[in-house]
Design a protein that fits this description.
Structural class: alpha/beta
CATH class of the largest domain: Alpha Beta
Number of domains: 3
Number of strands: 19
Shape: globular
Oligomer: single chain
CATH topology of the largest domain: Rossmann fold
Distance between the termini: 45 Å
Strand order of the largest sheet: 2-1-7-5-6
Radius of gyration: 25 Å
Number of helices: 18
Largest sheet: 5 strands, mixed
CATH architecture of the largest domain: 3-Layer(aba) Sandwich
């Protein structure tokens, strides 16, 4: 342990801790921009590039960046000396002098760390005028917007992309006035190995990285009388959107969410959880078949489009491993524009499917050409949890004040197994619940596979399924997925089944969720809410969903049938690895 004083207050911290850690322990807040600490995922970015966190250390000639300066025995630190305060103000003035002044129309208006800090420091004028960096926006992808003119070189996105996700497409480029964070060769985002997971967007403190916004497209569809506009909501949305309206993290707002969507004017409000149950029917059929034949193991879940694109670029030789089942989002769209379209006597092209997702990669997924049979996309528009919250606010709808309402039928009923898709480990657990019943031929009561739950990056377990021991793994975060896949390639590990989610912690921490600003305890509360919904539901196994049973009886036949395979399955592409 190391003893020091911060503003004359004694504090003791572990060896290796920083001055910022010591100040935080005493309750003193030192402003930061580049620092990022995600304790639940063992990720920390403390490069000291912004210098906003400088403090005065007795005996040291220069001011010290507190986020990356180790605390040492006997150190005397002043965080609020006039010298430190003046330095911070000058640094902020310089950052602001080269930052666009379009706060009112910026996507991050109201949630921008730079804007918030400038307000806290009482900075209300630009002291330094001169030439500003002028760069074009990268609008090439369907998921993420890059506006490097707003980049403040905090480099948090680099840590998210390179350290946490190991995708490795972002780095500091250029010299002097032209320096920014960008892609190799300044390629457009769509021409890189980007997975569109959105963790760089979640890490960015300003508007340099934002989501592609489709709110106007939704309003246009809702105002088109020739279209039937239906909406699906992902499981993780209902445990997070309340945060945008002052609810405590982990608040369950399912019924209020449905009511709010009805007020916006959607013709029908359905649940992605219905399609998650459908996914389990197809994926578990494939799992049991592969285990029985002992072929193409392990089976990898394929619900996450960010993870799928990562595999296609980084591990193309393993593209035979993932389940061929589409994600719940795409299954829903396919069923909505076939089975449901026939029920309501509508042409597929006259139905607009809107998805509300916690994920930015879902925007990219909906545009993949294989998901537009005959030129009609399964899913037309994807908006994030944040975008839906902005729509509610624009329409004057505060879901906190609404009475709960129910999803519509027949694509609105679901089970607890579908609900847990929103948390890391949930897809695999849902599959195991159905697999156990199928293998045993019984309706088993023991269905909680708690060993694969939690926010840890890699969870390994041997689970007993109807008397059969299955070795499984759960990975969240692409960096963790890489570790497991490389072990498999080297022959150092073998499994029957693996679940992989691109975002650390799973969909509850998707790139389109309300910003957590480094507070990962929020994710724990979202997770608890997801499992509470599951526990409180009467039906907790996908194959027992009455509407799923009816769908197979009336339309699909059985899991893995030719019709089911045509509508609900896909193939993967071996992509270039730079």
């Amino acid at each position: 342990m190391v003893k020091l004083t911060v503003n004359n207050m004694p504090v003791e911290v572990e060896d290796g801790a920083t001055i910022l850690d010591a100040a935080t322990k005493t309750g003193i807040k030192i402003p930061t921009l580049c620092h990022m600490h995600l304790d639940s995922f063992d990720v920390e970015h403390r490069c000291g590039s912004c210098r906003i966190c400088v403090v005065e250390v007795e005996g040291r000639r220069n001011l010290a960046p507190s986020c990356c300066t180790p605390a040492s025995e006997g150190m005397k630190v002043k965080t609020n000396s006039i010298r430190a305060i003046n330095a911070r103000r000058t640094i902020m003035d310089l950052i602001l002098s080269n930052h666009p002044k379009d706060c009112l129309t910026c996507e991050r208006n109201g949630s921008c760390d730079l804007q918030k800090l400038a307000g806290e420091m009482d900075l209300h004028q630009i002291l330094y005028e001169g030439e500003m960096s002028k760069r074009k926006k990268d609008l090439s992808s369907k998921a993420i917007v890059r506006d490097t003119g707003k980049c403040i070189m905090c480099r948090r996105c680099e840590t998210a992309c390179n350290v946490m996700q190991t995708v490795g497409i972002l780095s500091g480029i250029g010299r002097g006035f032209d320096v920014t964070v960008g892609t190799a060769g300044r390629r457009l985002l769509e021409d890189t190995e980007c997975t569109f997971c959105g963790q760089c967007v979640a890490a960015c403190p300003v508007g340099a990285l934002t989501e592609m916004n489709y709110v106007y497209n939704v309003w246009s569809a809702l105002n088109d009388p020739s279209k039937t506009v239906i909406v699906q909501t992902a499981p993780a949305v209902r445990v997070a959107i309340g945060e945008e309206f002052g609810m405590e993290p982990g608040s369950i707002s399912t019924g209020q969410l449905v009511h709010g969507l009805r007020l916006l004017g959607f013709d029908k409000i359905f649940d992605t959880n219905f399609a998650a149950d459908l996914t389990i029917m197809e994926e578990t059929h494939e799992l049991v078949e592969r285990i029985t034949k002992n072929e193409n193991l392990p089976i990898l879940t394929s619900c996450c489009p960010g993870w799928v694109k990562f595999l296609e670029h980084q591990f193309p030789e393993l593209t035979y491993m993932p389940s061929s089942a589409k994600s719940p989002q795409q299954m829903f769209g396919a069923i909505a524009k076939s089975y449901y379209a026939e029920k309501i006597n509508k042409k597929p092209e006259d139905i607009v499917v809107v998805s509300v997702m916690p994920c930015l990669a879902k925007k990219y997924e909906a545009t993949r050409p294989e998901f537009a049979p005959d030129g009609v996309p399964d899913v037309d528009i994807v908006i994030s949890t944040r975008e839906l919250a902005s729509m509610f606010k624009e329409a004057g709808v505060n879901i906190n004040n609404l009475e709960p309402e129910e999803y519509d039928s027949p694509l609105g009923d679901s089970t607890g197994a579908a609900m847990i898709f929103g948390a890391s480990g949930g897809v695999l657990e849902a599959a195991l619940r159905t697999a156990a019943d199928q293998i045993s031929g019984e309706d088993l009561e023991s269905i909680d596979f708690k060993s694969i739950r939690g926010l840890e990056g890699v969870k390994e377990a041997t689970v007993n399924v109807a008397g059969m021991d299955l070795k499984v793994a759960v990975c969240s975060g692409l960096g963790n997925a890489r570790k497991v896949l490389e072990k498999i390639k080297r022959g150092e590990a073998s499994y029957h089944a693996i679940e992989i989610m691109a975002c650390p912690g799973g969909c509850l921490n998707g790139g389109g969720q309300p910003y957590i600003h480094g507070d990962t305890s929020i994710l724990e509360r979202r997770k608890e809410a997801i499992y509470k919904i599951d526990k409180d539901l009467t039906i907790r196994k996908s194959h027992q969903n009455p509407d799923i049973i009816k769908l197979y009886d009336e339309y699909l036949g059985k899991p893995g049938s030719p019709k089911a395979h045509k509508l609900l399955h896909t193939e993967y592409v071996k992509r270039e690895h730079f």
